[in-house]
Amino acid sequence: MVDSKELVLVFDDSVKERIIKSLGFSLNEKEELMDTRGKIATSQDFKPIYSKEFGGLLRGSKIPIRKKESELVKYFLLERS
Amino acid sequence: MGLWDILKGIIPEKLINIEIDNRKIEISNSTIVVGKQTINDSKLVEQVLNKLEEFKDKESFPCQVVHKDLDESYSEYEDLSLNQKESIRQLKLILPSEDVECILMARRVKRAFDKKLDNAKELHLDLEKQYPEKGYKVFNLVGGGYFDEMILPFVDVFKAEYEDKYIEKFRDFYYNLLKFFPLAFFVGNGTTPEKLKEGLLARLKLGGVPFVRLHAIGKHNIEKVEKVVSELQIEENYITKDNRFASPNGLKAQIYEIRTSEKPKD
């Protein structure tokens, strides 16, 4: 249950690839996110996330999200309500 | 350990402690923005990212990491989660997650329109795209204020009336509202008897609809329904069903159904 606002690190496209690396992911030749074990990282829908879709990583779930409102909604309902 | 703790020693502490929004840091390849302060230093950016990287094998990161395109949405949903905590908790208990997600998105769209944000229309379209069957209906219920004023109170009413079956009954009620959306009329505190009369007559004139339902919460609003029904001689001309409910705390509710086929003459 969310009781207070969380600290947020906001990034833009100029630093996206570096952020992806810092979070422990890499990109394969199709520009899909891969985890540290070399497996394709997926969002809550179990589909791959392409670099251009990457919207960040939220605490708690540690699951990467796409730049989509619906993925934020799912996170707030599952993890913070 | 929070984000600011790990950044101590990298970002000058005076920037961390100044008056501005201290819960957000914006980063690009050469700048860091903390509130109104901008630091142009790509080495500093690298140091921050190196610190972040130290957490990649740990259970969680010290902060949320959000793309700039999602920044505003993130803040809006965080505010909604904080301000409407009780309502969201209640909705999660009674509706499937897909419905709760749709309601939360509709609330976000309403806030965008209320704040006159440039992307309000775009968000509205997104909602319809995401939920083609019900997105616009849910938005109309939320946007018109009916959802919180007229629909959510039925949870307590049904709890008292149907006990163990209240979730099933509430879902029936809610899905019927969405299914027969144009046929429902909500009588709230802002509904005048004239407005009710006008809305009711307009619905009764619709062709090919099986019924019209009036939803009222509260004694005063139920009295408005009674007055208008009497003035329009509804019971003399139509088959009606007057469902009344009351919650243990004394809240009264009414679902008044008017079958649109006229009553057979005696």
- First-to-last CA distance of chain A: 4 Å
Proportion in helices of chain A:
10-25%
The neighbouring-strand order within the major sheet of chain B is: 5-6-8-7
Number of helices of chain B: 14
Shape of chain B: elongated
Tally of helical segments of chain A: 2
Shape of chain A: globular
The residue-averaged pLDDT of chain A reads: 88
| Largest protein-protein interface | A-B, 42 and 51 residues
Question: What is the fourth-level CATH superfamily of the domain at 179-266 in chain B?
Answer: Alba-like domain
What is the average of the pLDDT values of chain B? 88
Identify the quaternary structure here: heterodimer
Per DSSP E runs of 2 or more residues, the count of β-strands of chain B stands at: 8
Q: What's the story with the biggest beta sheet of chain B?
A: 4 strands, mixed
CA radius of gyration of chain B:
26 Å
Structural class of chain B: alpha+beta
CATH class of the domain at 179-266 in chain B: Alpha Beta
Structure description:
- The complex is a heterodimer of chains A (81) and B (266).
- Chain A is of the alpha+beta class.
- Chain A has one domain (13-79).
- Helices cover 22% and strands 19% of the residues of chain A.
- Chain A has two helices and five strands, in the order E-H-E-E-E-E-H.
- Chain A has helices at residues 16-22, 69-79; strands at 8-11, 26-27, 33-34, 54-57, 64-66.
- In chain A, the strands form two sheets. A two-stranded antiparallel ribbon of chain A has the order 2-3.
- In chain A, a hairpin with a 5-residue loop joins strand 2 and strand 3.
- The mean pLDDT of chain A is 88.
- Chain B has helices at residues 3-7, 13-16, 42-53, 68-83, 85-94, 97-114, 120-130, 135-143, 146-151, 153-162, 166-179, 193-204, 219-231, 234-237, and strands at residues 24-27, 31-34, 37-40, 64-67, 184-187, 211-217, 238-246, 252-262.
- In chain B, strand 5 (184-187), helix 12 and strand 6 form a beta-alpha-beta unit.
- Chain B has a four-stranded mixed sheet, sandwiched between helices. In chain B, strands 1-2-3 form a three-stranded antiparallel sheet, with helices on one face.
- Among the domains of chain B are: 3-65, no CATH class; 179-266, Translation Initiation Factor IF3 (2-Layer Sandwich).
- Chain B is 54% helix and 18% strand.
- Chain B has 14 helices and eight strands.
- Chain B is an alpha+beta fold and 266 residues long.
- Classes of the chains: A alpha+beta (81), B alpha+beta (266).
